[in-house]
Amino acid sequence: MNIRARLLRALRGEGRLLLPAVALLVLALFLPPLPITRPAYDLVVIFDVTQSMNVPDYELDGRLVSRLDYAKYAVAEALRSPRCDTRIGWGVFAGRKIVMLLAPVEVCGNYSALLAALANIDGRMAFENASEVQEGLYWALGNVQQLRPVPDVIFMTDGHEAPPLAPDLARDYDGAKGAVRGWLVGVGDTTLKPIPKTDADGKRIGYWHDTEVLQSANAGGSSHEHLSDLHEPHLQQLAKNVGFRYRRLTDARALDDAMHDRALAHPAHVLTDLRWLPVSLALLLLAWRFRPDWRSWIGRPKRASATNI
Amino acid sequence: MTLLGTGFAFDFVQPWALALLPLALLPLLRRHREELAFPALAWLPPDRIGRLVDGLGRVFAVAALLTAVLALAQPGRPESEVPRIGRGAEIVVLFDSSLSMDDEMVKRGQLPKRNRDSPLRKRNIAREALARLVARRPDDRFALLMFGAAPFRVTPFSQHPDVIQAGITAAGVSNGLPGTDLGRGLLAAISQFDHRAYTGSRVLLLVSDGAAEIDDSTRQQIRDGMARNRIALDWIYLRSANWPRLEDEDEPRPTALITDVAMHRFFKTLPTAYHVFEAESPDAVSRAVAEIERQQNLPLEYLERVPRRDYSPMLYLFAVLACTLLFVQRAYVLRSWT
Question: Residue B192 above 80 pLDDT?
Fold first, then answer.
């Protein structure tokens, strides 16, 4: 029997499935990672680190945690399955300014270092005691436009203005609306709680009293700026002013949605390992080739026979 | 998923694919559709070679499926860190983020301007020099802190140069902060070395234009901390234009200079090594950084990251081989009478 005849014999019947399987496996062996266009994200997350963020509004593993700690937890959770198409950086807000800590870096290669830097963020970074959220947000938008490419912003705050924002100081954003896109994430609960007071080293020293903070002149005698809750209408207004979307941080999921908001995605070419594709097909062919003989399981009488592969 | 064996580690990128492993047993099942009908078996002689060829075919088939499934799961040796001895240092960069760092660095006789976008901003000059330093020294470990009225621990020690660079980029974006609490900044920088095994030369690289006062009790804490953690201090002093050198003046007269000279004199009393690099131009900053680079070349124990090793190409090769052999085997087996 010559080679040709043998080859033809091998190709007969289900044997012809073997050839494409070999071809697919060879393809997988030599397939380099290919650039695939995928949605990618460039983000700066800015944390309000002022003292009202110390209010324990959230519960984590049966323990009360502060607004800031929960915000950090939610960000870490959203990064848990690190996607190589995301670049992220950190900033903090206090007073009326922000301090940029890390410009956006690629997440999956720098995951542990990013988390270590995130863990470092705490109330001690509050470089001023005031908390002028409106001014801070507007300032932040100017700041991030110095970065290239201009990242999207996720600004996490309870919206508690200290000193309270007098109605005549509430102003519209004077920059170009929409030049920076992003989310304003409301952190906190809607019930009033006392604000823990901390010293410069972050040590707890009781609570803020009503006489220690600037009260609002417009509220008559009912001002309670020493207590804090989530100022949701204020944040919704601010979000509208700068063309952001607003969302309350109800759970870690809420932040994940904001961080992977398709509206913020831009296409990026990500080198992707596609070897699984030809291998899966080859596997399918092989499995089909060796699929069991269903009829033999439904009680056909056994015949004396010789089987072969 | 990681399996730790005897001394070597093993993991899968897609461990779920292992659920497909039972597929590899398929070739062992009987298949009537491939049977050849014989009128009578008793007449047939025992066919040893036939059985052997049949057995080999099954082995190849099982091997092909097995390797394909394993390749899909992408086994490999996980990324690891191997201790090595290199040359370099552990460097904590303490970056002054006060308002005056937004001033321009100008030539003698010119008036400095505060211009946010000027490439001559002290902040930008220092930032670029630092970025070059980090880029040129992959073996060093860097930590980054900024300080204004409060210290900002930007990143603890890491060997991720991207993250340090991102911190340096961010330092250029940030706004000047009111206040310059150098004392707390130094203490925060010193504490980066706390509870850290001593593996090689340690440097606190202060990038500042001075003008900070430190009270006595803080001074003592700084002295103790520098001695305890054996840290050398390098100060890149971004000198304000037209000011005399720190050593020149016996008794400085301009008020801002008084604090700078006081800083310098205090640093000289530190129990560990101290160098000041006075720089009043971008070139001088580059030279200072180059000098620091030259000095910090002592042996340093560091961890080299060994990237993950992917074993799947090997499995693909085996799968191709097994499939090809299977094909050859078929060529030698009678399929049907027709």
Answer: yes
Same domain, B24 and B147: no
> What is the nearest CA distance from B252 to chain A, expressed in angstroms?
31
In the stretch 16-45 of chain B, residues with CB closer than 8 A to chain A read 20, 23, 26-27, 29-38, 41
CATH level 3 topology of A36-269: Rossmann fold (3.40.50)
Instruction: Give the gap in angstroms from C-alpha B86 to the nearest C-alpha of chain A.
Output: 22
| Domain extent at residue B31 | 2-37+45-79+307-331
Q: Is residue B338 part of a domain?
A: no
Same domain, yes or no: B319 and B294: no
* Same-domain check for residues B103 and B186: yes
Question: Do B15 and B156 belong together in one domain?
Answer: no
The mean pLDDT value of chain B amounts to 83
ipTM above 0.85, yes or no: no
- Sequence ranges of the domains in chain A: 36-269
Q: What is the pLDDT of residues A211-221, one digit of tens each?
A: 888 787 766 66
Specify whether B103 is located in the same domain as B243.
Answer: yes
pLDDT in tens, B13-38: 888 999 999 998 888 887 766 666 66
pLDDT digits (tens, 9 = 90+) for A31-50: 998 888 888 899 999 999 99
* A265-290 per-residue burial string, b: 16 or more CB within 10 A, e: under 16: beebebeeeebbebbbbbbebbbebb
pLDDT, one tens digit per residue, over B263-284 is: 899 999 999 999 998 888 888 8
Report which DSSP code applies to B241. Answer: T
